[in-house]
Design a protein that fits this description.
Elements (H helix, E strand, L loop, with lengths): L1 H6 L3 H12 L10 E2 L4 H9 L4 H23 L2 H12 L8 E7 L6 E7 H16 L7 H8 L2 H32 L2 H4 L6 H33 L4 E2 L1
């Protein structure tokens, strides 16, 4: 082959054929950018809500104590006797409604709401338990999260943020309600929940930041697709 390549009339074409056989074929396909998974970001954001379980539980204790102080002022002798009888008969206590006020962030105006205090407490207990389930990677709920899709995780995160925002709004209104409804003599006995409200607000802000990061990342991926740059795992 060497003699033919060097001395025969077909030498140049033979060399060319050999080089073609040895050449590494070029990959003309456009290099694809590896898609960055956003699932860990969303799971981290959800797990970040776990600390609020203890905060909500402590807040419930303070609310109960504040209610007892308010009840001691509002309930007359016969009302207290009635409540004791109901308790002895193991019957449900009467529902308690509080007229609370809060600021509507959209309209910028004050709104009034008739709050079922007992129901709100039950909702708060459920929420605290739900957030507590985020503390361990080995429980059934966390297993579901690990297997959930990005859309499901994003939806769950958004739902939790919205629920916590509503809880924060209601707790803020209740804090003001108890302080304003009791007499001056008992006002110092009312346990404020400003530290708890601050913790809830900061946690919501952090979760929201993660949510917006996710949205920005998905928008960037969509823009790349429109430009013809396809992402692949």
């Amino acid at each position: 082959e060497l003699l033919k390549e060097n001395y025969s009339a077909e030498g140049d074409s033979l060399k060319s054929d050999i080089l073609k056989q040895l050449a590494i074929p070029e990959d003309n396909k456009e290099k694809k950018k590896a898609e960055v998974s956003s699932r860990p970001m969303l799971i981290e954001a959800l797990r970040g809500l776990n600390g609020l379980s203890f905060i909500l539980t402590d807040t419930l204790t303070k609310l109960d104590e504040n209610k007892l102080i308010l009840d001691s002022e509002q309930n007359g002798f016969w009302q207290k006797v009635r409540q004791i009888i109901l308790k002895i008969l193991n019957k449900d206590m009467e529902e308690v409604f509080y007229e609370i006020e809060y600021l509507d962030p959209v309209l910028g105006t004050t709104k009034s709401e008739k709050l079922n205090f007992g129901q709100f407490k039950l909702d708060l207990v459920r929420k605290a338990r739900s957030l507590a389930s985020l503390s361990s990677r080995n429980n059934a709920f966390m297993t579901k999260l690990e297997n959930a899709s990005e859309d499901q995780l994003f939806s769950l995160l958004s739902k939790n943020i919205e629920e916590l925002q509503k809880i924060h709004r209601t707790l803020t209104a209740l804090d003001e309600f108890f302080k304003s409804e009791v007499s001056k003599e008992n006002r110092e006995k009312i346990r404020g929940i400003k530290p708890e409200l601050s913790s809830i607000k900061n946690t919501i802000i952090k979760a929201n930041q993660k949510r917006h990061e996710y949205i920005a990342q998905k928008e960037e991926q969509e823009q790349l697709k429109k430009l013809g740059i396809q992402d692949s795992q």
